[in-house]
Amino acid sequence: MADNEQKAIQLMAEAEKKLHSSKGFFGSLFGGSSKVEEAVECYQRAANMFKMAKKWGSAGNAFCEAASYHAKAGSKHDAASNYVDAANCYKKSDPNEAVTCLLKAIEIYTDMGRFTMAAKHHQAIAELYETEAVDLDRAVQHYEQAADYFKGEDNNSSANKCLLKVAQYAAQLDNYDKAIQIYEQVAASSLESSLLKYSAKEYFFRAALCHMCVDVLNAQHALERYQELYPAFQDSRECKLLKVLIENMEEQNAEGFTEAVKDYDSISRLDQWYTTILLRIKKQLNDDPDLR
Fold first, then answer.
1. Which residues contact residue 133 at a Cβ distance below 8 angstroms, ignoring those fewer than 6 apart?
2. Which residue from 245, 212, 242, 217 is spatially nearest to 227, judged by alpha carbons?
3. Residue 90, SS3?
4. Where do runs of H (alpha helix) occur along 24-114?
5. Deepest in the core among 53, 93, 162, 231, taking most CB within 10 A?
6. What are all long-range contacts of 249-254, with beta carbons under 8 Å and residues at least 24 apart?
7. By the 8 A CB rule, do 57 and 94 touch?
8. This prediction's pTM
């Protein structure tokens, strides 16, 4: 490990030396640009040596140096690729630096008209804000931007995956109207495909639960509308649960509400998102003396 790090440090010094010699009068006359190319190669080799030594911050710095000189030379694709390489290193040590590098890569890719690549890196930033530099508001922003770019490139499947993440976090952040709009939109899109039609029931289920967080009467009307749009939904366990939950809410029956959820969970395990939303609905049931 130490040997690889030492080799990397030597390569960094060699790169600096080549760059310095390329700036002199004779360097500019005789092969200045080739010296820069050699320096960039040294930076890239150094970065890989730092990676082998697990010195992630140093590896990221070396890739950034290479990216910077590629950009100055007009090698946009190489510059963007090196910024992405740098981001992948920084992810292991400094998520905020990783975001900075990915944003630089995105700027280059959008300038080149490569919007699918830009979308993928917005998605990568969103995932960083989900897990490492936790900031759900920023995660939502980048998932939305990714979805917008994916849509523009007619990649509706990837766009919908990003939008579903937006809906998931919008609901967690109490923005139920936004979540409902997205879940209904993706459900309607799914109904147009024989392969995706079955998944529509999950999105209608989620949308209805978001409605219940706002108003039980709206939830009732939404459920009726979903059954008209997708008749098969009527016989699903999700639809049956929603009917029982709405009935218990109207009767202000917290115990019946809890039992219905337990019965469903014993067969189809509810994930953390469902648990959070259902607990909010139950709290509303307990706190509100008149849900009608």
1. 95, 96, 99
2. 242
3. helix
4. 25-29, 32-52, 56-72, 76-90, 95-111
5. 162
6. 249/212, 249/216, 249/281, 249/285, 249/291, 250/216, 250/291, 250/292, 252/285, 252/290, 252/291, 254/282, 254/285, 254/286
7. yes
8. 0.83
CB 106 within 8 A of CB 118: yes
Instruction: Encode pLDDT of 56-67 as tens digits.
Output: 999 999 999 999
Give the closest residue to 291 by CA, choosing from 221, 226, 218, 229.
218
Residue 143 lies in a domain: no
3-state helix, strand, coil in the chain (%, to 5): 85, 0, 15
Nearest to 171 by CA among 279, 285, 286: 279
Structural domain containing residue 203:
174-292
Q: What is the per-residue pLDDT for 15?
A: 82
For residue 159, is pLDDT > 50?
yes
CA 291, distance to chain mean position in Å, is: 36
* 217 in a structural domain: yes
Q: Which CATH number covers residue 259?
A: 1.25.40.10
